[in-house]
Amino acid sequence: MSLYGDKQVPANEAPTVQVKAISFADVPATGPSGGGATPAGPAGTAPDNRTPRRRTRQALIAGGAAAVVLATIGVTTAYAYSGEVPRGTVVLGVDVGGKSRTEAAEALRADLTRRAQTLDAPVTVRIGEKTAQIKPADVGLAVDVDATVAASLKAEANPLSRLFGSREVEPVVTVDAERLDTELRKVAGELGPEMTVPRVTFTGTTPTAVYPKPGKGLNPEQSAQAVRTGWLSGEPVTIPVVDVQPATSTEEVDRLIAQLATPAVAAPVTVETDKGKLTISPAAIAKSLVLAGDKYGQITPRVDEKKLRAAISGQLAKVEVAPKDATYSVQGGKLHPVTSKSGRQVDTAALSRDLLAVLPNGVGREVKGTLKAVQPKVTDDELPTLGIKEKVSSFTTYFTGGLSHPRSHNIRLAAEEVDGALVKSGETFSLNNHTGPRGYAEGYRDAAVISDGKLVPGVGGGISQFTTTLFNATYYAGLEDVQHKPHSYYFSSYPSVIESTIIYPTLDFKFRNDTPHGLIIDTAVTNNSITVSIWSTKVYDSVTTQWSPRRSITRPETVYLEPGPSCIATNGIDGFTQDAWRIFRKDGKEIRREKFTWRYEAEPRYRCEKKPN
């Protein structure tokens, strides 16, 4: 049935042409005088006494009739076969019969354009008891015009069917099965017991199996077929809920443990490079070997390159030379260019593939490590084009105890790692990504940190002060705040609301350089202070802060803790909520303001003593 409501005539009800058979014997023949008929002979043929002239006339009449019939058939055939698309062909209510391939495609596209609003409307889908709407554009749902026209070219051989018949050709509908599956899973929720995806995990160097279990879910291709079939009907499309069987069996998981996981961590692997040998320990192998099933339950063993590089970072440091970007150093309040240098790194992508190949082996656990040249991200020629020419902002915080104190030591170490960092226009800077882990192996020491609501010794204590200093430098430079989180408790040494804590790797500080110029971060540490400055090209005349009064103030309670070296006493701090507006000015007037709000909890008065009776 046509979507436009045109009536479709079934093939067996189409009009037919009846042609009466003509016998030349029935044509009256006249004698020489034009009189009566000449009787037929016994066999229905003319008597032997017919003259040649009479026989010639009959032949002419017969030939003329035959010519008329043949001419009629020829005209009919020519009409029926005119154009590439058979006559009577209708697609989505559009008559494309008798047209060339190009004309048919143009006609169909014109109609689809006319109905674009309807075709772009969300499609209602039903998954179990849930109903949702899917936008065609989000899943690549469309009519393939060229494929539809190609399908319409398959014509019947009978020219009369072409001439008098009518047929509806279904459009060819396309949809991206993977994108559709992703959208459907967002709304499907629980359709029954979920499939248990098989995997092999490591506790230390001991492999542990998670066995597969079937469940209820969606099959991407079946879902796509349902949408292709039902989209243009205008009715809700029912998505089939099917039994989902994991692609990997229990027996295959056991075989994977026996043949790969167990021998993989049985012994170290030696890596031979041009600069010396490296050792990949069983623990490093366990951290980087991935034996997890995908969403279909298929396990494809692989060595994760990033995890491998992190696990053997100490070994890699023996043979690698990191590249150095061109940057500026600040000396005497002026910028001085620093030349870039290329580096050499182990090709860990190739190493990951080669390592996987030898892990099942009990012997011959050696692979070749290739050192490849690594170019700096910023070259000497590029540096002058970045637009770094002046100090845009600067912020200072203070500490006590001198640089020998563990907390001050950690601040100085982080500052040295960030000093000279260059951030191009449009790039996002992550403090965690830039410094990497901040543990004992990297030289950080124990100092006070907040854990479970109280101050306790922890490695890397003091980095929050550096983070707050860096955050304020970027804040007053007018740069885009991407991620930061103030402390749970307020510390008077920091500006309220506009300060930030950090925890590696779960809690980060990030900002984006949303200016048209590059920037560098300059850090300077004294015996009692840390200063961070941003050098770039000024975009704003000024960036200032306006605070609201504190509200919803709460008082601290007294908490008694077990005395000991891990207990740190405090005097308690009021809790409160406050707003801070970042105000941007340019050309002498305010152009916008940005609001920050934070709620500080009341820090208890911790007492390192037993609670009195």
UniProtKB/TrEMBL annotation:
Keywords: Membrane, Transmembrane, Transmembrane helix
Domain annotation YoaR-like putative peptidoglycan binding: ranges: 257-367
UniProt-annotated stretches for the region Disordered: 28-54
DNA damage listed as a keyword: no
Pfam families documented for this protein: PG_binding_4 (PF12229), VanW (PF04294)
Transmembrane spans: 59-81
Protein name in the entry: Vancomycin resistance protein YoaR
Species per Swiss-Prot/TrEMBL record: Micromonospora polyrhachis
